[in-house]
Specification:
alpha+beta; three-stranded antiparallel β-sheet; about 210 residues; single chain; globular
Length: about 210
């Protein structure tokens, strides 16, 4: 994906105009890790929860922009754009209200209470950890496609090919290490327990080295 320009979204009238002219896709929704910040397109500095949207023109599909914002603007854009199946925010820390079944974050809507397939949940957690640890901005290509599929069908077991695809992407970032080792290197406090045992087993069955 080429570098995309950001759209400012500070006020409600501006957000209404954006939704009138662009189709919005929520491509990231997560709690920032300690020490991370993001510049909001609603004119602020984000230090906690952020939303990122891919905006595609309704009149020219080749015209795309990004919006990065905090909770207030993010929730309003979701409502204005009638975005359904909003995934819970990825939040790896124990001192917050986290989703069920090893879920990824805090949300008070029905989606946060979705019963995930355990393999799908592990794969989604791995994708979100990769995005957060390496500040992948914006997520795109197979990473975004597989993430979107998991969020659309959270109770379906992902194909082994998707596990292998994410494993290959992780290898490009972690080099000769694993995602688990990279997480542990940071010594985050109050971190929830994460396991990728199902993903490791799938790769082991096909004699593929795991980078989870």
């Amino acid at each position: 994906m080429p570098t995309l320009t950001h759209l400012k979204c500070r006020t409600t009238p501006v957000r209404i105009d954006i939704v009138s002219n662009y189709n919005l896709q929520l491509i990231a929704h997560a709690k920032l890790l300690p020490g991370q910040t993001k510049e909001s397109d609603a004119v602020d500095i984000i230090t906690d929860l952020y939303y990122e949207f891919l905006c595609t023109s309704k009149f020219n599909s080749m015209e795309q922009y990004l919006i990065t914002c905090g909770s207030g603007a993010g929730k309003e854009l979701i409502k204005l754009a009638n975005i359904a199946n909003v995934p819970p925010a990825f939040n790896p820390f124990m001192n917050e209200n986290n989703g069920r079944n090893g879920g990824g974050g805090a949300n008070d809507d029905a989606t946060s209470r979705t019963l995930w397939n355990p393999i799908a949940k592990e794969l989604h957690n791995a994708i979100m950890w990769l995005i957060c640890l390496y500040n992948i901005d914006p997520p795109n290509g197979p990473l975004l496609e597989i993430k979107a599929d998991l969020e659309t069908w959270p109770n379906s077991k992902p194909f082994p090919s998707k596990v292998k695809s994410i494993n290959t992407i992780i290898k490009k970032y972690t080099i000769d290490s694993t995602l688990t080792n990279k997480i542990n290197e940071h010594n985050f406090e109050n971190l929830r327990q994460f396991t990728f045992s199902h993903l490791n087993s799938i790769l082991e069955e096909d004699d593929v080295e795991s980078y989870f």
